[in-house]
Amino acid sequence: MSNVNIRRAVENIRANTTVYTPVVEMVVNGIQAIDELRPTNGRVSIRVLRHAQARLDARLSAVVGFEIEDNGVGFTDGHRASFDTLYTDRRISEGGKGFGRFTCLKYFEDLYVKSVYDDGTGFGSRRFRMGKGQDIIVDEELGVSEKDASGTIVSLTGLKKNQAFESKLVTIAKSLVERLLPYFIAEGYACPRVLLSESDGSDKDILSTADLSGMAYKPTKEEIEAHLQREKFSRECATKKDVSNILSETSLEAMKDDVVEIVKKISGTSKNDLIHYIAQRRAILA
């Protein structure tokens, strides 16, 4: 039992999120679940859900949701307790704010979870829906799984009115790569494979590879260099000031103009390009 005013929590989400935020949050959760288990073939699959009614002009139907599947550790009792806590600190050491799942209900009507996890004696199954009233977890079902590997599928369904995604997969891929780039190019980190496809698995695009060569959207040399310089800039600042101050929104806002100018000098970045402030591979301000 959570006893949280979920509607108010969602309404209080700050304005600097986009329709892509919940998708990225769920992908990052999948990456972290894989990092926790460390399988040899870590994989996050993003499947686009489209409106069932075909368009008369033969163009792609509108995107109405996503399925994000990972082969990570699954929803153990510990992960379940964390999900059911308003401001969980489970991922705080990795830059998590413990609030990302609430962005899902800002842009989508429903969030569903289906998971298989190792309970110590075998593989159990857990499925539930994210509530909209007082309880974060509702309609929970537990069971014994016949599968012999853990993993989770998160479904984001019912895109809310006045929200929209681009229709083409390659355009969606570009937007996702821009937001997940810190994971793909972090020095000394092997990111799990991230794939984007239609709901039936067709038109599959690779968003992350070891050398970036197979990616659906390839970040330019300038984009990568700008990101690496921002990481260096953050590290240098952190050696001179208190880290908690560096990562506060107020201090980042104050530094924004200076950082933009630095990045422009480095890579010729346009004023229309997004500048992402990175901490522990998470974009904490854009």
- Our count of helices gives 8
The helix content, as a percent range, equals 25-40%
According to CATH, the fold-level topology of the largest domain is Heat Shock Protein 90
Q: Count every beta strand, where a strand is a DSSP E run of 2 or more residues.
A: 10
Highest CATH level, the class of the largest domain = Alpha Beta
Rounded Rg: 19 Å
List the uncertain runs. 235-269
Tell me the CATH superfamily of the largest domain. Answer: Histidine kinase-like ATPase, C-terminal domain
Task: Please give the domain count.
Answer: 2
* Span of the ends, CA to CA: 35 Å
What strand order characterises the main sheet?
A: 5-4-3-6-2-1-7-8
Quick overview:
This protein has 286 residues and is of the alpha+beta class. It has helices at residues 6-11, 21-37, 77-83, 104-107, 169-185, 221-240, 243-246, 249-267; strands at residues 43-50, 63-70, 108-118, 123-130, 137-144, 151-159, 193-198, 205-206, 277-279, 282-285.
